[in-house]
């Protein structure tokens, strides 16, 4: 089975069911499928063939989804690029993947030899299946990592990769055709893209909301469209929780998911109080495998700091620096194995070899995530930190997440990010950037005293930057790298 079959099957079984909602516009599965077929014929007529990369430079919209499935129906590979990215970054990605075509309304750069499509409909072409053959092992998408920890890489995901993740997520979230899923997170990232694949697999409806920066609009849309599923990231949760929710009720909301970055325990409790009837799923994943684990909602009280157990069809374990499996409770690198693990990085064989190992017994690749975890005796995973983000100070290794959890307990703190900055004496000094809840005040001295009460002295931040908001990338994650660079410049 291939990814385009998700749309085709839904269009066959429930042709008049609403597939996508964008503002006042609603399209059925049949309408969307026909539009995708026309786009596929337009691509084929332009010389686009099997395996060619086609970039789609547009935000979350009906046209973007139609283009994704049109590309797949033509046998090609889709590459969704965020239109909010810098023009030079967009141009770099088009060059890197050697895009044969680009769907864009008004590209901020000249695409060179890339064929440009400025319309997302092709009424002159038939809405019938083109003569294209392929298998589940063909490449379906290139998804570029955010690059917040270094160079951005093109993750190669096959049809089997995308479908395996969608099947597993639908299973544990129990998504059905009755669900209405809010889509705010960019389709350029696997968390956002997953809302489409899981919904279409189940015949559900996806409702687009253009921006995560307007929480009141999100809440209004949730109420108007009777949203049952709310996928979010911590920055989005912070903005929603700053709204006055006392007189609001969302009786249809069935579940809330969080990924991209871990929610603090404080935020988890606040979300439970704000949406008492919704199940809250804390999750963990990477672009390289889309999703790794989820915490069953009935385990939130027993294991509040955990990101849960492996998703269906996935194996996980933890290894030391020599690659040996560690005992329960010990910290090491997380390894993931399953049919959703990527094929590799586009045109980067050395980087691919660093993180992928081929299992000759199962025929499946093992992904070495570069993330530090521990696993308890019940098999529940606990994120410690990115291996590259560990702070080495005074001869000690410090996990930023541990300090962030402590600082987040202060009621005035909306968001916090901890990182290391170069220090001649210490090697690295612990630094923290803190965004406050609007209308509150908090001094650096108070934050340091609070840390001294709950942390070892070497873990207390020496530098504290208080600001209105923390910078985020297009994927909703706090950009720790940008904060570190700003702190280094300030020190210099």
What secondary-structure arrangement, pairings included, does this model have?
Elements (H helix, E strand, L loop, with lengths): L3 H10 L4 E5 L2 E4 H17 L7 E5 L4 H12 L3 E5 L5 H10 L4 E4 L10 E3 L21 E6 L9 E5 H15 L6 E4 L6 H13 L2 E4 L6 H10 L4 E4 L1 H8 L13 E4 L6 H10 L4 E6 L8 E2 L14 E2 L4 E5 L12 E6 L6 E2 L3 H7 E3 L6 E11 L5 E6 L4 E3 L2 E3 L1 H8 L5 E11 L3 E10 L7 H11 L8 E5 L12 H12 L1
Parallel strand pairs: 1-10, 3-4, 3-5, 5-6, 9-10, 11-12, 12-13, 25-26
Antiparallel strand pairs: 1-2, 7-8, 8-18, 13-14, 14-15, 16-17, 17-20, 19-20, 20-21, 22-23, 24-25
Helix pairs in contact: 1-2, 1-6, 2-3, 5-6, 8-9
Written account of the structure:
The chain is α/β, with parallel strands linked by helices. Helices cover 29% and strands 26% of the residues. It folds into two domains: 4-375, ANL, N-terminal domain (Rossmann fold), CATH 3.40.50; 390-491, GMP Synthetase, Chain A, domain 3. The chain contains 13 helices and 26 strands. The strands form seven sheets. The chain has a five-stranded mixed sheet, sandwiched between helices. Strand 20 and strand 21 form a beta hairpin. The mean pLDDT is 91.
């Amino acid at each position: 089975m291939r990814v385009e079959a998700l749309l085709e099957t839904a269009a066959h079984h429930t042709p008049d069911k609403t597939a996508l909602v964008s503002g006042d516009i609603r399209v059925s599965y049949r309408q969307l499928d026909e539009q995708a077929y026309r786009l596929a014929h337009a691509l084929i007529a332009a010389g686009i063939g099997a395996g060619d990369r086609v970039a789609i430079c547009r935000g979350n919209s009906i046209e973007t989804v139609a283009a994704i499935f049109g590309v797949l129906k033509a046998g090609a590979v889709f590459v969704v690029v965020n239109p909010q990215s810098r023009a030079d970054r967009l141009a770099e990605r088009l060059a890197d993947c050697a895009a044969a075509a680009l769907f864009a309304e008004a590209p901020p750069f000249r695409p060179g030899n890339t064929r440009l499509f400025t319309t997302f409909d092709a009424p002159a072409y038939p809405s019938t299946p083109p003569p294209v053959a392929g298998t589940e092992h063909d490449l379906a998408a290139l998804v570029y990592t955010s690059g917040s920890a270094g160079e951005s890489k093109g993750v190669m995901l096959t049809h089997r990769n995308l479908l395996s993740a969608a099947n597993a997520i639908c299973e544990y979230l129990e998504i059905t055709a009755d669900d209405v899923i809010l889509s705010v997170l960019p389709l350029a990232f696997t968390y956002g893209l997953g809302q489409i694949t899981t919904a279409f697999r189940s015949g559900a409806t996806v409702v687009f909301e253009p921006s995560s920066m307007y929480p009141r609009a999100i809440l209004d849309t949730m109420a108007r469209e009777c949203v049952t599923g709310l996928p979010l990231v911590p920055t989005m949760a912070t903005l929603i929780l700053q709204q006055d929710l006392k007189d609001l009720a969302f009786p249809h909301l069935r579940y809330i998911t969080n990924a991209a970055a871990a929610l603090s325990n404080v935020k988890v409790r606040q979300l439970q109080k704000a949406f008492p009837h919704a199940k809250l799923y804390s999750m963990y994943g990477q672009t390289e495998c889309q999703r790794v684990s989820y915490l069953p909602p009935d385990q939130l009280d027993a294991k509040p700091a955990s990101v849960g157990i492996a998703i269906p069809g996935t194996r996980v374990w933890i290894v030391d620096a020599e690659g040996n499996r560690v005992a329960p409770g010990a910290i090491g690198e997380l390894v993931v194995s399953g049919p959703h693990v990527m094929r590799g990085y586009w045109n980067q064989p050395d980087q691919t070899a660093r993180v992928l190992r081929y299992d000759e017994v199962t025929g499946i690749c093992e992904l070495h995530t570069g993330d530090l975890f521990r696993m308890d005796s019940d098999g529940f995973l606990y994120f410690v930190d990115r291996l590259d983000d560990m702070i080495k100070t005074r001869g000690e290794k410090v996990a930023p997440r541990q300090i962030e959890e402590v600082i987040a307990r202060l009621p005035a703190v909306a968001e916090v990010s901890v990182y290391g900055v170069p220090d001649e004496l210490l090697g690295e000094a612990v630094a923290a950037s803190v965004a406050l809840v609007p209308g509150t005040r908090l001094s650096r001295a108070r934050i340091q005293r609070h840390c001294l009460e709950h942390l070892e002295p070497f873990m207390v931040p020496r530098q504290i930057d208080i600001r209105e908001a923390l910078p985020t990338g297009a994927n909703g994650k706090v950009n720790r790298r940008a904060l570190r660079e700003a702190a280094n410049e300030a020190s210099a």
